[in-house]
Design brief:
The complex is a heterodimer. Helix content of chain A is about 20%, strand content about 20%. By secondary structure, chain A is of the alpha+beta class. Chain A is globular and about 35 Å long. Classes of the chains: A alpha+beta, B alpha+beta. The interface between A and B is medium-sized, with 22 and 29 residues.
Chain lengths: ~140, ~425
């Protein structure tokens, strides 16, 4: 998702507390098949998430766009998070393009594993009411 | 029965016991032999120095050396004094919630015990696998006082064996090339297994006082010899149990046969090596042909493999690595296999996922509790267990099989 930031934007969106951010799920097992709930593993920040946990800004990057974006052949779902939920956890959000932002403040592995998991659990808890299952025909195996 | 002691308590109790335990009456005869030890834990506060068939108790604690090789293996600590250590070892083995009685009950399932004046034997059945082992005491007081030897075959094709020497207050494990008294590296084999056997061996003298050892029901302790019968049969049963339940990948080659013919072998070694060979040879031929089939009995590993197999079905999209590394897979297999062997169907279904970086995350959820085992892709990062109940959560590092079992026990039992 980092490749969304392909150019320097002239200005960045100002996020309101009710804005929705999409977390694109690249691994089908990060979604519970029965409850359709996004698992907390999807919110564990990894080494590749250098700038923070990658999210898309729903206002400028709709679900339809997620579905039709040819760059994402392995997107199995989209989890929605409200800005105020994220901020209530003490996390920051920094947009880097009109469509994309990074959630700041999530520890990497080895930095603070307890907080890393706690925050992932909390984010998954907030995320469960926003879900879209797309690209079902692209499920491997 | 839950056993939980701090090391401090153990030390205090050990000091207390040491004043009332009668001193050993036999005089050790140092020989040229040398043993190789396998420690119970990395740290041992109370170990005793021993040479072949010799115990030289010392009062100062000895730190187990990390690397012992070559000619320096004499004076390697191989013996543990249960009166000092048994609670400590119990603590290490069963901490804090794994009940000893669970293990005992499984041993109690052994059927068809046959007891005579000269020999004790039984059939040990687990599924379709049947193990026959015998306990043969030697009517030699000095020999018994120096410890009984339990000979276990690791890989009969290579004629290498492991020997467990034990008596009521002495135990040591060493690898050897029979009949040569050359210590060999046993770490490559299955260190956790031998740690456990060692601990069990040490504990045997104490365990049979507090648990329902099979022979106790039918056979009164009428003599020191019968006590040793009792003790060694218990140890053999314990060893079999751990062999059946170990998950080390080398174990397919470990014959399911266990016998105390090592006792005889030890005795005969100095007199008639030919007889020893005969015994060992007949022992060896019993079950090795089915070794690979025996492997299927390790259901824990099979279950663990099934659970982990789906990780390999995933494709790796650009920028993501879903397939686990060999390191992560092996660690997960070992830990999960051990857990499934310990708990079987009691373990709730786990949720195995990739962490996207070639590591493995395994989640168990039950009621409002979460147990997460996070295995990184390499040794550079730490394995940890994250556990959460309600709003309370914490992280545990230094994960071993025992640690995982402890927390699975927490997940299943405590509320």
């Amino acid at each position: 998702m980092d490749n969304l930031a392909t150019f320097e934007p002239l200005f960045l969106p100002l996020l309101k507390i009710n804005d929705i951010l999409y977390r694109l799920i690249v691994y089908d097992d990060w979604i519970d098949k029965q409850t359709k709930k996004i698992q907390s593993q999807a919110f564990l920040r990894r080494d590749k998430d250098r700038n923070g946990l990658s999210v898309c800004i729903a206002e400028y990057y709709s679900l339809e766009k997620c579905k039709t974006d040819s760059r994402f052949n392995f997107i199995f779902g989209v989890g929605g998070l409200q800005v105020h939920h994220i901020k209530s956890l003490g996390l920051g959000i920094e947009p880097d393009t009109m469509e994309h932002a990074n959630i700041k403040g999530l520890p990497l592995r080895g930095e603070d594993d307890k907080r890393r998991n706690d925050l992932a659990e909390d984010l998954a808890e907030f995320c469960n009411s926003y879900y879209a299952w797309i690209n079902e025909n692209k499920l491997p195996n | 029965m839950t056993i939980s002691f701090t090391n401090q308590e153990t030390m205090e109790k050990g000091a207390e016991l040491s004043s009332v335990i009668p001193k050993r009456t036999f005089i050790p005869k140092p020989t040229n032999g040398s043993f190789r030890t396998v420690g119970l834990e990395n740290r041992l506060s109370d170990v005793y120095i021993s040479k072949k068939h010799s115990l030289l108790p010392i009062k100062k604690p000895v730190v187990l050396p990390k690397n012992v090789s070559g000619n320096n293996i004499n004076n390697v600590p191989v013996a543990l004094q249960p009166s000092y250590n048994w609670k400590y070892v119990l603590h290490k083995l069963y901490q804090p919630n794994l009940e000893l009685t669970e293990c005992v009950n499984k041993i109690d399932n052994i059927s068809e015990w046959k007891l005579s004046n000269k020999n004790v034997s039984c059939n040990f059945k687990q599924g379709v696998l049947e193990t026959i082992f015998s306990v043969t005491p030697v009517n030699d007081k000095e020999h018994i006082a120096n410890g009984l030897s339990l000979l276990l075959m690791k890989n009969p094709r290579k004629t290498s064996y492991y020997n467990i020497a034990t008596s009521s207050d002495f135990a040591g494990i060493f690898g050897m090339e029979y009949p040569n008294r050359t210590a060999i590296q046993s770490e490559k084999f299955d260190l956790p297994l031998w740690q456990q056997i060692g601990a069990q061996t040490v504990l045997a003298g104490e365990i049979n006082k507090i648990s329902n050892c099979p022979f106790r029901k039918n056979e009164p302790m009428v003599s020191y010899l019968s006590q040793m019968q009792h003790l060694t049969s218990w140890i053999v049963a314990k060893c079999c149990f751990f062999m059946f339940n170990s998950v080390d990948s080398n174990l397919p080659m470990l014959t399911a046969q266990a016998s105390l013919i090592g006792l005889v072998a030890e005795f005969l070694a100095s007199k008639n090596k030919e007889n020893v060979y005969k015994i060992v040879k007949s022992f060896r031929n019993l079950d090795i042909n089915n070794a690979q089939n025996n492997y299927k009995q390790f259901i824990g590993i099979d279950k663990a493999k099934n659970v982990l197999s789906k990780l390999f079905l995933l494709k790796n999209p650009e920028g993501e690595i879903f397939h686990p590394t060999k390191y992560a897979y092996n660690v997960a297999l070992r830990l999960l296999g051990y857990a499934y062997n310990a708990f079987g169907k009691q373990i709730p279904e786990c949720f195995v996922t990739s962490d996207g970086e070639a590591g493995i995350i395994i989640d168990w959820r039950l009621n409002n509790k979460l147990l997460r085992l996070d295995i990184p892709s390499s040794e550079k990062n730490k394995i940890y267990i994250y556990h959460k109940q309600g709003k309370n959560s914490d992280i545990v590092y230094n994960i071993t099989e025992v640690t995982l079992i402890k927390w699975l026990d927490w997940l299943i039992k405590n509320g």
